[in-house]
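re: the backbone from monday

yeah here it is again, tokenized this time
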């Protein structure tokens, strides 16, 4: 987390940069897939886009769903005013 904070301080315009070793995935897509809720929140607060897509057209919400990560799905859906039920 500290490394990401430092990166965002140093390069605030690069919040949607591709993740190291992540191919063409953004940091938010990778964090969502791994269920890193706190990191997702940090990136979103810094202006990361929920509309960023990879080479297959997948968004951070897709990655959260691929990783079966309900907590990240809820964050993204709340921002976009989508209601999800995981009952």
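seq for it, each position gets an aa:
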């Amino acid at each position: 987390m500290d490394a990401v904070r430092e990166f965002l301080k140093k390069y605030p315009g690069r919040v949607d940069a591709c993740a190291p070793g992540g191919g063409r995935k953004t940091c938010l897509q990778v964090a969502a897939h791994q269920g890193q809720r706190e990191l997702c929140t940090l990136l979103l607060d810094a202006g990361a886009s929920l509309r960023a897509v990879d080479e297959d057209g997948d968004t951070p919400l897709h990655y959260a769903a691929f990783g079966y990560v309900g907590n990240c799905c809820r964050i993204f859906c709340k921002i976009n005013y989508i209601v999800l039920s995981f009952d």
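Residues 83-87 have pLDDT under 50 and may be disordered. The helical segments are 2-10, 27-33, 37-45, 60-66, 70-79.
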